[in-house]
Request: fold
Amino acid sequence: MDRAESRRDSGFALLVVIWATGILGLLFMTYIAAARYRAIEAASLSQHARAEAMANIGIKIAILDLLSGSSQGRARSGRFGADGTQVGCTLGDGWTVAISVADEGGKVDLNTANMELVDALIRGVSADGEAAALIVRNIKGLRELSQDTGSTASGGSSSVRALKSVFELDQIPGVGRDLFRALLPLVTVNSGSTGFDPAVAPQQLLVALAPGGAALSREVARRDLPALYITETAGRAFLIGSEALAGTGVRFARDAVVEISQDLPTGYRIREWREGLPRSDADAGGRLPPC
Reply:
């Protein structure tokens, strides 16, 4: 082998070494970056899981509050009210929880409410009169069908609900996305009432039912709205909302429909779990009392 060939072989070997070193370095950097991203992802998942746990704690706090105010088969929320207004508190380590309790008796039950009330609500919220009339007809049709099905299945007594969840409302022909969002906080399928109780009703419901859309106070609503609209709440079914927020900005919202009854072994049962929508004020954490 002459000297020129030896130099070519040495140069090729050097290139191979440099190429291999570069590949190894790239693989090493890729591994480091992947490990870093896995660590970030694990931390994010951990924070999310903790936020979910904190939101569940908020649900339990509200249930305990309801149980402490339960007497004669009727529950009353003392600390959080019963009209859906959020109340915040802190759980330490930079965590805040916003809790709301809404008595389902303050809403319009799509399964059992007087159809005149259902009609007034839909028309009060919808800007399209023809669409509102279609929706009311469809709800009435579903109720009649469920009554017939329940009567056949149980030998004469209806036990089948037309809607099992308020989220089924968006499946009714005529209910668009905007109308669904507007109706969602005003309706229920859990009160079993023919009317609603203005004392715990959302303010938006009182506006929707008021002549001309003027805001009504709870006292005026009880006095001036048709008597068939008004039914005192049984204080048994509640929608509890709980949103946990970390100082880092991680948040998780959880809702639960809860039945409170002294006839139940634990005094309550969860009728429905929902993943809630963010609602709380992220800047209010420093002004909140401990939970």
Remarks:
- The longest helix spans residues 3-68.
